[in-house]
């Protein structure tokens, strides 16, 4: 292990950290303690978010990366900067001794720290002027996921690399500039008084990995850490259901689906067990749940019937929704989706899940639904990290922001994406957790930071008297969803209840594919997606189980 330090002398801001460091185990903890300090501070830091700065001093003693402005140096040269190994709560004195990036000096570019690698964070990173700012991105994954096409990877329509774009390709300065970095780690706390974030390194699940703590000083902080799937505290969901938010989720779903298909062909498996193993249940009738159900039905009708002929009559899909599917879409489009899904073999059930067991779910009416694969897609809510921040929240528990995406209760802190929502006093509604909202906020914040930088407000505490310009205004561009078998829905209304263009059928499917192909971030991934669609059309989906 190696101690990572910035290769420059430290310049520490005055002021003490008031927040404490505590790990929260309950993802659905309730209540946010009110502000009760005269100094703005974030409290109760938790491990829900990540970076890649690895400050340790025992494995790598001699490596030097001078061209990046960082060095891995033997510990004995810096006895006061000993690596922090995770193991309990840290006092504010211990936090202050973390190794890391110290405050920027006079004459250096201001440093912007971005927490997250989702739609909002990556749109901001893509547009930020790196001649004006140094950028540090801290996130638990090193890539952005193109979520609209994620469901297609679960059944082999697309390969996983087609929907993942490395952060260092989106913003090349993170890999090349001497004072810009990407850190694969969790943000565990923020001290707004000292302008520092505290982080903890992460590793792959199931792989032994020693965690270390470090700090990064910032001039401007952008919190874009996203949200977590909502489980409503239902027993068994986290243990037995699959979510569909990350590439890793899609990989797990694909492995489980193929494994169940192969196991069901084993001699001695009872008819009842085959029915259970090949029953795919989707909870949640939003766009993600509907699109995944449509992809599954396509996979069953074209690929399973050809390649798993012995069990083709056992596999079926059930979509369970408490209200109406695609509730944000036009009524006519919802009716079309219902009829089409039913036609292609998806069973629609109105019900509320009460409990989840390893091989069945229990509905509120007492009925049992056996399953072999359970995918949970009921929306998102604030993460443990967001809940831990002792700052005013918007309705729903997100970070409260003003019309300029600033966190009003603290200085030099901004929040965008699914983790942020307008405060009630702004008079604006909390925007939906959509990719287009996050992307638009990231783009707006780029312009705001450019204006601030041009007025010499990039450094910490230097933008108080700067006029921010026009506030952020969101205009909805419409919604799209595929329902399988070359059919899709396109709803171009700007808001629910308003009039607008609504399309359904093959032409909508063509629009859906064309729109998303152009929205894929890089030309490399556009090529991957187009090639995957072509090979799937000609040769069928890949049903190889690897791992």
From TrEMBL:
It catalyses: a ubiquinone + NADH + H(+) = a ubiquinol + NAD(+); a quinone + NADH + H(+) = a quinol + NAD(+). InterPro entries: FAD/NAD-bd_sf (IPR036188), FAD/NAD-binding_dom (IPR023753), NDH-2 (IPR045024), NDH2-like_C (IPR054585). Its main location: mitochondrion. Residues 83-104 are annotated as: Disordered. It is an enzyme of class 1 (oxidoreductase). It is found in: Mitochondrion inner membrane; Peroxisome. This is Internal alternative NAD(P)H-ubiquinone oxidoreductase A1, mitochondrial. It comes from Solanum pinnatisectum (tansyleaf nightshade).
